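ok so for the tutorial part 2 we go from a plain amino acid sequence to predicted structure tokens. step 1 is just haveing the sequence, like this:
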Amino acid sequence: MSPLAWQLPALTARRCLIHEPEVTPMFQNLPPDDSDYKKVIKSLHTKSVEATIQSYIPSKVLNSRPPEINPSESSLSRKERSRLAQLRSGYSPILQSYCYTIDNSVPDRCPLCNQTPHNTLHLFNCRANPTELNVNDLWTKPVQVAAFLKLDEPD
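step 2 — the prediction. this is what the tokens look like for a chain of 155 residues:
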């Protein structure tokens, strides 16, 4: 493919963006130089991502918008982070309620206290495994939750 073929889509996109009424005021120079164009694209992307995040439905687990995930989660293993993400969604093989939706022969009961339903909220309210942590801590204190739930142990 010729070098010109790679440049044509960008040039076409640039020309199209200049004529969008909400975008035109964002350009400092017309025609825009590369740096100006990149700033506008980044700004449009940021606004689009923010709008998308705002449009998300509330968390099934929290019944509200979830908080930001604490950066300390990056210190956890991939397995632990994956299990935390599953628990945040309510779709985790750790949860008997989830397993029950897949296989009706699996009882939706806590293996420790026999209460039902055995969902994410119950993990933090189980009388047989008390904790000061709460369901919000899946986002705000992921390292402590991973230790409490022993997410690094083999299946």
